[in-house]
Design goal:
It comes from Thiocystis violascens (strain ATCC 17096 / DSM 198 / 6111) (Chromatium violascens). It is a single chain. By secondary structure, the chain is α/β, with parallel strands linked by helices. The chain is 34% helix and 19% strand. It contains eight helices and ten strands. The strands form two sheets. It has a seven-stranded mixed β-sheet with strand order 6-5-4-7-8-10-9, sandwiched between helices. A three-stranded mixed β-sheet has the order 1-2-3, with no helix packed on it. The termini are far apart. The chain binds S-adenosylmethionine. S-adenosylmethionine binds next to helix 5 and strand 5.
Length: 250
Amino acid sequence: MFFSGGNFNITNITLFRQCVEGIRKSITTPDHFFCSDNMITWNKNLSFLQNDKFLESMRKHSNTNIELAIIWRTYILCYFANYAKRLRGDFVEVGAYKGNTASIILDNTGLEKTEKRYYLYDTFEHSDIDLNHILPEHSNILYDQVRSRFERFDFVKVIQGYVPESFSRDFPEKIAFAHVDLNQAPAEVGALRRIIPVLSPGAVIILDDYGWWVYHEQKEAEDPLFAEYGLAVLELPTGQGLVLNHRDFF
Ligand SMILES: C[S@@+](CC[C@H](N)C(=O)[O-])C[C@H]1O[C@@H](n2cnc3c(N)ncnc32)[C@H](O)[C@@H]1O
């Protein structure tokens, strides 16, 4: 069980690699080692590396090192998507970009066998006034590419435009699963103000950026918002934030 992938925020890659090698040489389980997405662990089962179906869909849909590097985040998303498919309500991804994560979730959940719809929101383009940073494949053809990627799934709705304004075009009545990943606070807060009130009992929100210090403005803006609804975010080692809607259980 060995996985070595990309990491972020490194200023001296040679020194970093020497240090990682130093860690491997100084532990009892150098072959049970994970170093990727700013996490270094050893002596863990790494269950996702033993799941052939999941690994196959990761390989099929991940075209860049970064997409592979976030394997632990994607495993968590697939786990909670499987959990949420039994709940009332639809799936949303707010900030879908190329649709990679949505494709992997579809491969690993069999969502097409349920009655659920999967709403994917994004601008798909980048403008200089945007608060979030540009990504390599932002362009005026990305929306069409993502639409074609999902055209065989009529329950997947690809919606272009700025969130939360674009919610007026189409938005679910009830939400079971929300993956929120906009890399900026104001639009995420706007989106969450619409999402939280329509969560079904037990519904899950995964905030992709919540635990990352570089995105701490998102955490600072979102913690009080969740508190208004009696909810709290669990920061995961992956940098994701997890919220389970327990409000209507008690
Ligand atoms: C990190 S990417 C999302 C990656 C995607 N969740 C995945 O897992 O493959 C962030 C996306 O958020 C989108 N975005 C940021 N602010 C937005 C807004 N206000 N409205 C719509 N999309 C926005 C960007 O265009 C970008 O594609």
